[in-house]
Amino acid sequence: MKYFIMLLLIALWSDKVLCQSMENDWHKMNRSKERALQDFQQQKFGMFIHWGLYAIPGGIWNGKTMEEMGIPNVAEWIQLVAKIPRKEYADLAALFNPVDFDADHIVNMAKEAGMKYIVITSKHHDGFALFESKVSDFDIMDATPFKRDIVRELYEACKRHQLEFGVYYSHNIDWADGADAQYATTKAANDLTNNDTDSFGANLWDPSPNGFSTYLKNKAIPQVKELLEQFPGIRYIWFDMPGLMTPEQSYTFYKTVYDINPDVIIAERIGNDMGDYAIPGDNRIPTADDQFDKPWEAIGTFNHSWGYKSYDNDWKSADELLYWLIEIVSKGGNYMLNIGPDAKGNVAPTVMNNLQKLGSWMAVNNEAIYGSKPWKVQREGPTTVSITDTEQREKEGFKVQFTSEDFWFTERGNQLYAISLELPESQIALVKSLARGEVDVKQVEILGAGKVAFRQTEEGLTIKLPKSVQKLPKGYTLKITRN
Ligand code: GLC
């Protein structure tokens, strides 16, 4: 008995030592990415692309919609929600021939919208790789008639147009090859400790016969290596849905990436608090109560699905998207907005139009966005909005009408920016947070319209807006130089 207890103590102790050294190593690696993280925070606005075989069913399987099958929105989850056997789902690859896909067109669209980076799903939960993979035949080159490496084409186009590039990679869930995402073994261990085990996302209807660790060893880790080796300019890796991953497993992914390219920064969902940057949640704009000890990126959909959903035409308007961008940036985050091309590679016309409108606003106002930081006041004005998740936003819609008293603030060096989305009827703007005593104003300029006279009182900063503001894309931005 004594011997057994001693062995147990040694085991526990060495586990602790291992954890400690893993944690120390992680901190060392994470700290070395300070510069890469700063660059990331300057970018502010990016494009997320969810694309894969799920674009073919587009949210409908055997005549049933996602809603009818029980999990709304996420059309890229169709294999799970319809419990499609692996073999049957894999047959979709033979139909995947997105002849209209044009990487330059997509990258240009992002660039003209004012986006600075693109992150594409190199492999989503279905296990299908959009890039050439030597370790799996379930990829764009081997399994489809298309035979063009989509990730490579986008990567090259990003280089041509000077956009940064990143990949999403579903490291834990892989319905084709990832077995049950170690659900059974974790559950068995947890039954002894009375801990809950969540099977959410695991393939329990037709799991691959190999074990989860075989999947990690033979597919996930090798594919992450392939991505980093084939695309040395990758800046971001967006792992997702860590589920039951252990700290050791998350660490192995982190270290694998670091050893090949130490400048790549990794999103939160690598799991076990090992991300370099935080993600507040799907379609969630953080509130003042959310505290982040890492740089963060808010992510949102254009309609309510990430992957193409043929019957969801509830597109966010350009005005709403502008609100998301300004709200997120004035709180200090990046905004990554998602598009889901269809099975031919096309993007809905409304999406393109709204991106163009955002681009017109950005062309005039982008200096209040890129490289900016939050000011001590994030916003003022009577209008409040709360966006907590996909379902809430879908249910409630976006009926907000901003007023000319609503302002958002950002700051860059000695410049302070006050962004408004509505012109006052009186043509007189009053910004209360910029009252005398609060800020020592030297000069005021309206982006796209030039310098203006101002008056500063205890009540605020008053400006008579020139007629030319009416020609600006939406509202106006005050650029304030301080003494
Ligand atoms: C969720 C979903 C996934 C989507 C992702 C985007 O975790 O599983 O389908 O890719 O969110 O944030």
Automatic annotation (TrEMBL):
<dbReference type="InterPro" id="IPR016286">
    <property type="entry name" value="FUC_metazoa-typ"/>
</dbReference>
<dbReference type="InterPro" id="IPR013780">
    <property type="entry name" value="Glyco_hydro_b"/>
</dbReference>
<feature type="domain" description="Glycoside hydrolase family 29 N-terminal">
    <location>
        <begin position="21"/>
        <end position="367"/>
    </location>
</feature>
<dbReference type="Pfam" id="PF16757">
    <property type="entry name" value="Fucosidase_C"/>
</dbReference>
<dbReference type="Pfam" id="PF01120">
    <property type="entry name" value="Alpha_L_fucos"/>
</dbReference>
<dbReference type="InterPro" id="IPR000933">
    <property type="entry name" value="Glyco_hydro_29"/>
</dbReference>
<dbReference type="InterPro" id="IPR031919">
    <property type="entry name" value="Fucosidase_C"/>
</dbReference>
<keyword id="KW-0378">Hydrolase</keyword>
<comment type="similarity">
    <text>Belongs to the glycosyl hydrolase 29 family.</text>
</comment>
<keyword id="KW-0732">Signal</keyword>
<dbReference type="InterPro" id="IPR017853">
    <property type="entry name" value="GH"/>
</dbReference>
<comment type="function">
    <text>Alpha-L-fucosidase is responsible for hydrolyzing the alpha-1,6-linked fucose joined to the reducing-end N-acetylglucosamine of the carbohydrate moieties of glycoproteins.</text>
</comment>
<dbReference type="GO" id="GO:0016139">
    <property type="term" value="P:glycoside catabolic process"/>
</dbReference>
<dbReference type="GO" id="GO:0004560">
    <property type="term" value="F:alpha-L-fucosidase activity"/>
</dbReference>
<keyword id="KW-0326">Glycosidase</keyword>
<dbReference type="GO" id="GO:0006004">
    <property type="term" value="P:fucose metabolic process"/>
</dbReference>
<protein>
    <recommendedName>
        <fullName>alpha-L-fucosidase</fullName>
        <ecNumber>3.2.1.51</ecNumber>
    </recommendedName>
</protein>
<feature type="domain" description="Alpha-L-fucosidase C-terminal">
    <location>
        <begin position="403"/>
        <end position="481"/>
    </location>
</feature>
<dbReference type="InterPro" id="IPR057739">
    <property type="entry name" value="Glyco_hydro_29_N"/>
</dbReference>
<dbReference type="GO" id="GO:0005764">
    <property type="term" value="C:lysosome"/>
</dbReference>
